[in-house]
């Protein structure tokens, strides 16, 4: 019994081993299965090649269209874009670019009827782009612009039809919903509301514009829609930005500028100082602007201190000094400029260029003796053609022709390449009768 058991176990082991070897080797696939797999592989490869090929060809046409647009060849661009769409009709960018080209062509069209046709084509292309990618905000704003254009042109083509079928407002709202903080989208909507006489809606949009982008208010002031009502709405928006403390620094700056334009100097200074409190390092331009506000609010000491701070930190003192001198009005700030120049002479080392700039301002302010003193100091340090030129101009104002001749001659000698100096010198000599001119030539070219 013992021997039989062992034999039986060995037989079972052999049967188990043979069965697993068959499983490991597997059943050979039939020829039909192999053929089917090859067909599937070829079909998938062909489909992939077709898709990739269409994408490649469409991109080539799209690139050609953009090159045509750079050369203002709009109709060639339209042809290439249509070819790109033919190979890749589900690319929303192709449709959007085609719409943009139609909009450009329509804007250049003198015929109302043809302009209407191109605006309608642009609208349809934008709608197709929007269908393919409904979350793209630039497509929505394009739909709004085309729709607004059609709404504008419709009464000219159909004057008897009072029911205008076009309404861009839903598209405007869709674009702003997709990009709620886009200043440009709000601005386009504001222009539309102004043209269509929707005053109350315009004020709401203007307030939103100022709140989201206080720095954009300056550009808004140049728009035809600007009015006292819009200005009041903008101020509310700026105050909203201040209260929300998100873009408070820019809001304070814009409020300061608007109040300065109204000559409300105290409030303008208050808001500008609040704006400066939000930044660590104060720039040269900030000190100059603060000095300007103090100057026009009749606070000369604070103004001069701010100007000196600007010059102290300025890497280009000549240009900064020139910008400051322009702020002193010719009629009302003579005394303040004298105080300012006296202080900077004590606190800073002035270059000859800065001294000449100051002398020119003294001439503008009719303070000729101070200008002469500054220019003379420049020449005492080192003779300067520009300084002598302005001394000549002072002499011209005083009708001291001898002094003018001496100074303009020195300017010409120091800077012989300056044609303006030589021209002034020759004109003065002619006026004084000292330029005898050239003698008349004979017919043979020999001087008589």
Q: What this model shows, in words?
A:
- The chain is mainly α and 448 residues long.
- Among the domains are: 181-276; 281-349, no CATH class; 355-433, Alpha Horseshoe (Serine Threonine Protein Phosphatase 5, Tetratricopeptide repeat).
- It is built from 22 helices and no strands.
- It has helices at 2-25, 31-70, 74-87, 92-107, 112-132, 137-157, 169-178, 183-195, 199-212, 217-220, 228-244, 248-261, 265-276, 284-296, 300-313, 317-325, 334-347, 352-364, 368-381, 385-397, 401-414, 419-431.
- The longest helix has 40 residues, at 31-70.
- Mean pLDDT is 85; it is low at 1-13 and 438-448.
Key traits:
Serine Threonine Protein Phosphatase 5, Tetratricopeptide repeat, elongated, 22 helices, disordered C terminus, mainly alpha, 448 residues
In helices, the fraction of residues equals over 70%
What structural category do the secondary elements indicate? mainly alpha
Average pLDDT across residues? 85
Q: Tell me about the biggest sheet? A: none
Distance between the termini: 159 Å
Task: Provide a count of the helices.
Answer: 22
**What proportion of the residues form beta strands (DSSP E)?**
under 5%
Number of separate strands: 0
Question: What is the 3D form?
Answer: elongated
The gyration radius over C-alpha positions equals 40 Å
Low-confidence stretches: 1-13, 438-448
The string of secondary-structure elements, in order, is: HHHHHHHHHHHHHHHHHHHHHH
